Amino acid sequence: xxxxxxxxxxxxxxxxxxxxxxxxxxxxxxxxxxxxxxxxxxxxxxxxxxxxxxxxxxxxxxxxxxxxxxxxxxxxxxxxxxxxxxxxxxxxxxxxxxxxxxxxxxxxxxxxxxxxxxxxxxxxxxxxxxxxxxxxxxxxxxxxxxxxxxxxxxxxxxxxxxxxxxxxxxxxxxxxxxxxxxxxxxxxxxxxxxxxxxxxxxxxxxxxxxxxxxxxxxxxxxxxxxxxxxxxxxxxxxxxxxxxxxxxxxxxxxxxxxxxxxxxxxxxxxxxxxxxxxxxxxxxxxxxxxxxxxxxxxxxxxxxxxxxxxxxxxxxxxxxxxxxxxxxxxxxxxxxxxxxxxxxxxxxxxxxxxxxxxxxxxxxxxxxxxxxxxxxx
Length: 377
Known about the structure:
The chain has 17 helices and eleven strands. The protein is of the alpha/beta class. It has two domains: 191 residues, Glycogen Phosphorylase B (Rossmann fold, 3-Layer(aba) Sandwich), CATH 3.40.50; 165 residues, Rossmann fold (3-Layer(aba) Sandwich). Helix 9 crosses helix 12 and helix 10 packs across helix 15.
């Protein structure tokens, strides 16, 4: 249903692909309502090459130095405080003026931030330049990551009511929390039969596993795929290697293990699969849940992904065995039938909402339609 013509500026950052996926999901859902959208990587405002540099740096640290990344995450938890001005906040003021110029050109009815960097920049614009537009943050993990509390937005879309206490404990005002889910791209909301999906993809085994390690091919997912096909007779494992060229070269295509770089056919691969094994990124996990696909969580990037794994496994929406042997065993159990897969699918329904029923879009449109009197301090 077309509501009215509105403009939405959606701000993201390429530290992993989850934030970009959330931005695209919001954009597509709003466009289906007849709205106009613009998705902008805020780091490109400072320097065209900065976003790519930060993305490569993030991937390098998480893949090759995960303990160092965990240390940075823990430092962030300590230096971030409500109304605080951490070094991260100050770095995000450096491109704020350029962002204001983009806002004046596009003239949005509301601003949506899928990353804390842009949320901090928008906060700075409000304080220094008197920006008077509705602004919303969208959390893409099942936890309150550091630095959200340094922003001052009108609302914060969070994944679940069960996380409200964690966000308020960090200093995010409870009356601005909107616990209605993580947005997923509309293409993850439909389903086709396993038979159709497998025929379209050329997959012929009785059991299909989808193995993912995020955009950087995190974890030893090649060996995991090999172990799966050895453990489960008449099976194939599709391995998404992302930008990890070393992993792509290491994984030998045998017919049973099928390595891929990037693909735009992940929804079809999920439809074709019996089980997905993935690191616990907020978006990839939620996309699997939207597909009601049995979910085994593999080695997390330390920090927020550990929290994602704990939240989803405690809710019964996924299993988090904590090692390769356990992951293979859990995937085998889920793939070979019985009640375990059905119980997990039922739990996935209970822990949603994930924005698939239009509530996020409804909320954003209603916020943009309010009179210009912002609630943020």
